[in-house]
Design goal:
Distance between the termini: 71 Å
Number of strands: 31
Shape: globular
Radius of gyration: 23 Å
Strand content: 15-25%
Largest sheet: 8 strands, mixed
Structural class: alpha/beta
Number of helices: 12
Length: about 550
């Protein structure tokens, strides 16, 4: 009996109340046609109802590849547990994703877990353990003392517990069965042996499949093609066919939004690809300044948002070959792509011209093991208590993604973002900046809306951390922020202190200026000898800060 069936047939056996798990990374490796078929079945028949959906990370971008937005329907979705949520405003409709509307209107149970926990948890389901135990997330919004990852008032069950082992606190994530896993691969033979040769990311697809089979569940796999049994080496088959129940063939599935297929995301030297242009402005200034903190021969991990611009400006500066990457600068993201160029925007996660690829679950072993010594991450809020927030602010609830795992386990941290947001307009002339219109919202607040990471505790435990904006650079210390640089043309009182809800712990006197070349609009500018790290070391030794 063939395993090859239509997407409609594959989802027809899903029953009321089951747990359905799937995964993609933004637009990458999303089994979109199968998720679409499930959403369509509910709209047309009213079944299945009251499903729990488990997405280890944000699946789909809700713009070109809808992913989890296909199943974001009240009645179909009772509960969702995800490592991240997608929040973009659709440029065609001007609306946020359907899933985000359900969350904001409290119409479903929505839980947010750190991606590391959401991926490692699958191993515990697969080996039928009671649950996943970790230090990661203690003191954050995932901690039961701070809400336990509950994003809507409908959430009543405590999916995260705090336990004590040997006088140390841990977070405990109890397991439950996965009834259906929907994943994606490139090729399968008729028995279901899977290979991923067209996929620049594997994410947690393998772990999802094993967790579902250990639960007595079904595994549905969407593939691009069917191949003969002897066409591939066994070494290229990542999941044996005995763990696959159904194959959905979708020959025209997109690699990602706006990318039908591009070999440049699969190997180095696959031909020149034009890198995204970063228009000169605050984001580029920030990325240039953050690039000065990147060291050779140190594994550096970059997060979604403004931080992802850093490798692109380094490529523009000639430090990295866009086609082959660099043996001196070691770049990765939370999703397991190594080498090449980290991309920004909706192309983030899959590196251009990568040299190696780990699956997402193994990548969080790397991250949680502290092997990514340097991390550049974005920030939405920074508060007087030394808290950084990216998980819940304003009208958006993106969750933390890999932020918590990365921030807790790196040794050197850089947080990047504009000083204010919402209409910020800046002019540059002669290496100086002038603020024409201030943003409506300051990011330096008294108390953050959500605790994604406590930078204050981290630096108290030996980490170093910089907060880099377009007009000022701060160093985080256990006592508070120290203002260590200011942009040429900026007024300290009017443009910085007046837009902070709290005062810096200290302001260097004299206060150094940010390097003038950062504000040069010509491409390739901004790189100077990395003397900044030496300056940081000198500041750290200054006893007047302690």
């Amino acid at each position: 009996m063939t395993k090859i069936i239509s997407a409609e047939q594959a989802v027809a056996s899903i029953k009321d109340g089951q747990t359905v798990a799937s995964v993609g990374v933004i637009g990458w490796t999303v089994p979109d046609a199968t998720l679409e078929a499930l959403g369509k079945r509910f709209r047309e028949t009213g079944a299945p109802r009251n499903l729990t959906f488990y997405f280890p990370c944000g699946t789909g971008d809700a713009v070109g590849i809808r992913g989890m937005d296909h199943v974001a329907q009240e009645g179909l979705m009772k509960r969702i547990v995800s490592g991240s949520y997608i929040n973009p405003v659709n440029p065609h409709t001007g609306k946020r994703p359907d899933l985000m509307q359900l969350i904001q209107e409290n119409r479903i149970e929505a839980y947010s877990w750190p991606i590391g926990a959401s991926m490692h948890w699958l191993r515990e389901v697969a080996r039928k353990s009671p649950g996943y135990i970790t230090r990661v997330g203690i003191g954050t919004y995932a901690d039961p003392d701070n809400g336990g990852g509950k994003f809507t008032n409908r959430c009543q069950d405590d999916l995260i517990q705090k336990i004590c082992l040997n006088d140390e606190e841990f977070l405990f994530y109890p397991t439950w069965p996965i009834d259906v896993a929907i994943i994606r691969a490139s090729s399968a033979d008729e028995f279901g042996n899977l290979s991923f040769e067209d996929e620049p990311l594997v994410s947690s697809g393998l772990a999802l499949a094993l967790a579902a089979k250990a639960s007595g569940g079904r595994v549905i796999v969407q593939v691009r093609r069917i191949v003969s049994r002897g066409e591939r080496l066994a070494t290229s088959v990542r999941l044996p066919g005995m763990f696959v129940d159904a194959l959905v063939v979708e020959p025209d599935m997109m690699m990602s939004t706006d990318t039908p297929y591009d070999e440049a995301y699969l190997r180095p030297g696959a031909g020149y690809v034009h890198l995204p242009d970063i228009p000169f402005g605050p984001d580029k200034v920030i990325a240039r300044r953050a690039a000065l903190e990147v060291r050779k021969h140190e594994l550096s991990i970059f997060g979604f948002g403004a931080a992802a611009d850093v490798p692109l400006v380094m490529a523009e500066q000639g430090l990295i070959d866009p086609e082959t990457g660099s043996d001196d600068y070691w770049f990765t993201t939370e999703h397991g792509s190594y080498g090449g160029i980290v991309m920004n925007g909706w192309q983030f996660s899959a590196n251009l011209h990568p040299q190696a690829l780990l699956d997402g679950v193994t990548q969080f072993d790397v991250i949680d093991g502290g092997l990514c010594r340097f991390a550049a991450l974005a920030f939405a809020e920074y508060d007087s208590h030394g808290t950084v927030n990216v998980s819940k602010f304003g009208k958006v609830n993106p969750g933390s993604g890999g932020f918590i795992d990365i921030a807790m386990n790196a040794q050197r941290l850089v947080f990047t973002g504009s000083f204010t947001t919402g209409g910020l307009d800046i002019a540059y002339d002669g290496g100086r900046m002038t603020i024409l219109k201030e943003g409506k919202v300051s990011k330096f607040v008294n108390t953050a809306q959500s605790i994604t990471y406590s930078v204050g505790k981290g630096v108290g435990g030996g980490q170093s951390a910089l907060i880099i904006t377009e007009r000022a650079v701060f160093e985080a210390t256990p006592q508070g922020l120290v203002l260590i640089e200011i942009a040429p043309g900026v007024d300290l009182q009017r443009d910085i202190l007046a837009h902070m809800a709290f005062a810096p712990h200290r302001i260097l006197d004299p206060l150094p200026l940010m390097e003038a070349s950062l504000f040069d609009p010509r491409p390739g500018r901004g790189f100077q000898p990395p003397f900044f790290s030496k300056k940081m070391n000198a500041i750290e030794k200054d006893s007047s800060i302690a």
